Amino acid sequence: MRNCLNDLKNNFDFFLRNHITLSRKNYTEKAEDIGDIVIEDDNKNFLEKLKKSYDLELLKPSTKRNFLENLYFLNLFNKHFSKNNRQNNFILDIGSKNWSYVKSEYVFSKSVSQSFVLNGIEIDPYRLCSNLYNRLEIAKYYTKGLENTNYIIGDLMTHNQKYNYIIWILPFITEYPLLRWGLPLKYFKPKEMLEHAYNLLNKNGEMLIINQGEHEYDIQKNLNRTLKLNAEYFGETEDIFGLFKNKRYCCKITKS
C-alpha cells in the first residue's frame, strides 16, 4: 500500500518537474587548495600509481570532496577496466544524476583513446537538489570545458548507441531506492535494463557496475546469472577516503 501511494506521488511529481523545469541558474563551486589534502602513508602509493598513468591536474579546479570522489572512481576504472587503446572509444555513464564524478571518466577516456565520446544519460535531470539547482544545471558546471562530453536527457531503454565502456553506479535493482529518489515504479526494470545495457556494448566491450550494500550486490549477481552474462566479481571497493556512508561493491561484465 505504501509503495502504491509513493508511486502515485512520484508519477505526479515527475510529470510536474518535466513540464515545469525550476532551477537556479549558473551553478558554481569555490575551488579549494587540493594541496592541503593529507594522504595517509598507506595510501600514498595508490596516488603515485595514478599519477604515473593519468593527468590528475585535469581533475582540478575542484573542492576537496569532489577531487577525492573523482580519485575514488578513477582508481576503480584503473583497476578493473582493460585499456583497449583504440583510436576511437565510446563511453557511457548510466544514471548520471548531476554527474559530479565526470572528470574521473574523462581522465580515463583520454588515457585510452586518441579520440573518444563520453556520454552520460539521465532520465530525471530536472529533480531539484537541496540547494535549489536541478541536476542538469549542476552537470553543466561539472562538464564545462570537457570536449566530446555530453549529458543526455533520456531513458536508457530508448538509447541505442554502441559503446566500448559502460559505467553504471548504483543501479536501481530494488524498488525502495527508486521510490526514495522520486521515480515512478514504471521505470523499475532491473532485468530489462541490464539486458539492454549489455546489448549496447560492442564486442569485447566492458561494463563496470557499482552496487550499494551486500544485499544489492547479491541481487546483481543473480541478475547476471539469469541473463548468463560473463561477469567478474571484485567484492567490496576500497573507500580510502571514507567518502560513503554505505559499503560499495563492484563487478565487471564483458561482452564476448
Give a written overview of the molecule:
The protein is an alpha/beta fold and 256 residues long. It has a single domain, classed as Vaccinia Virus protein VP39 (Rossmann fold), CATH 3.40.50. The protein is built from eight helices and seven strands. It has helices at residues 2-19, 41-53, 64-80, 102-112, 135-143, 175-180, 190-199, 213-226, and strands at 88-94, 115-122, 149-153, 163-169, 201-212, 231-236, 248-254. The protein has a seven-stranded mixed sheet with strand order 3-2-1-4-5-7-6. Helix 4 (102-112) links the parallel strand 1 (88-94) and strand 2. Helix 3 (64-80) packs across helix 4 (102-112). The longest helix is centred in the N-terminal third of the chain and has 18 residues, at 2-19. The mean pLDDT is 93.
Features of this protein?
256 residues, Rossmann fold, alpha/beta, single chain, 38% helix, seven-stranded mixed β-sheet
User: Total number of β-strand segments?
Assistant: 7
CATH superfamily: Vaccinia Virus protein VP39
> Going across the major beta sheet, what is the strand order?
3-2-1-4-5-7-6
Return the structural class.
alpha/beta
- CA-based shape: globular
Mean pLDDT across every amino acid position: 93
Give the SSE order as H and E letters: HHHEHEHEEHHEHEE
Distance between the termini: 43 Å
Strand content: 15-25%
CATH A-level architecture: 3-Layer(aba) Sandwich
Kindly provide the name of the CATH class. Alpha Beta
**Low-pLDDT regions:** none
Main sheet: strands, sense, barrel: 7 strands, mixed
Count of helices?
A: 8
Helix-residue proportion:
25-40%
* Gyration radius, rounded: 18 Å
CATH topology: Rossmann fold
Q: How many individual domains?
A: 1
